[in-house]
Design goal:
This protein has 324 residues and is mainly α. It has 15 helices and two strands. The chain has one domain.
Length: 324
């Protein structure tokens, strides 16, 4: 059991944390919306097949499926798909740190929109420190100039805000009882919508088969995202949720960005400066502190994909994995 526990945590931490670098490898050969469509469609169909054909779970009701479609639009299409586009313009580790701020945005929404939380003085300082550090990350990993980098940063922040809004909205709607069907429907619907967006943008015409047929990196990256990030890591996540404290499992929210930073800077040799590393540390510490002060007071159902979860679990509010 101890080996399974360690393996499950390793899968959640490492596979979701590595998704950001895998996305960067994929979008080098495949246009971003097309890559996101392929990843989410395949992941969704696999999860649905596991739920219906292998586990023999009852099929969700029509209203629940419709809710999954709406959640997929807001949280996957608007949220996660932007990560694929931003990976063409920002370093993967910066995207990971920016995505981790979704925890902060959701907490703000709970305080001032849903009013299910009260803004406490102990939380206010780390919250403001984390938000203040965001602009200083925009100068790293720029491959298209400062203005384009800033647009990418703002886009990722808008995407995390959309994800947070979706997480808050999901507290008010009913989803399928089976977590695999919830995730599967959301991802599959999102993948279909993203395929339409990709076609409207003419990405198929820009696709160069030679770049992904003869280059093994994009293929391995897509296999990693589908099998590792969506199927294995999500299954490990649910296994842990049944056996471990939700507060402990939720630590992936700030471990994933650290893993992404180690891989992006140490393995892919992405650009960074000491100031940017310091700012990233401040942002992640702010997420940890807000999580620490908030968790003893609340425990509610939200939607997590993490990266790819996509299920309504009794879990402390956490950032999406990334991804992913």
């Amino acid at each position: 059991m101890q080996i399974k526990r360690i393996g499950a945590f390793a899968a959640v931490y490492l596979l979701w944390g590595g998704s950001y670098l895998a996305i960067r490898l994929v979008v080098k050969a495949i246009p971003p919306m097309l890559a996101a469509s392929a990843r989410y469609t395949l992941s969704g169909l696999i999860l649905l097949a596991i739920s219906i054909c292998i586990l023999r779970k009852p099929f969700a009701r029509a209203r629940q499926i419709a809710h999954c479609f709406l959640a997929g639009l807001l949280m996957v299409v608007v949220g996660y798909a932007v990560v694929f586009w931003s990976a063409t313009r920002l370093s993967s580790w910066i995207v990971a740190v920016l995505v981790s701020t979704s925890f902060l945005w959701t907490y703000i929404g709970e305080c001032f929109v849903l009013r299910t939380e009260r803004m406490r003085a102990a939380v206010l300082v780390p919250l403001l420190a984390g938000l203040a550090g965001i602009p200083f990350l925009s100068s790293a990993g720029m491959r298209y100039g400062r203005s384009t980098s800033m647009i990418a940063v703002v886009s990722v922040l808008a995407a995390t805000t959309a994800w947070s809004a979706g997480a808050l909205a999901l507290k008010k709607i009913r989803l399928p009882a089976c977590h695999l069907q919830t995730a599967g429907f959301q991802l599959a619907f999102a993948g279909i919508v993203l395929a339409g967006i990709s076609c409207s943008l003419g990405e198929w015409r820009r696709l160069d088969p030679a770049r992904w047929i003869f280059d093994v990196k994009p293929i391995l990256g897509m296999a990693y995202l589908v099998c590792g990030g969506s199927v294995i890591a999500f299954s490990a996540f649910h296994w842990l949720m049944q056996r471990e404290s939700p507060h402990l499992v939720a630590t992936f929210a700030y471990v994933n960005p650290v893993v992404a930073m180690m891989l992006g800077i140490g393995v892919a040799h992405e650009r960074c400066s000491w100031m940017q590393l310091a700012v990233a540390a401040i942002i992640l510490i702010s997420v940890v502190l807000v999580w620490h002060f908030k968790m003893p007071h609340t425990d509610f159902a939200i939607m997590i994909e993490p990266a790819e979860a996509g299920s309504a679990e009794r879990l402390p509010l956490a950032a999406p994995e990334a991804t992913l």
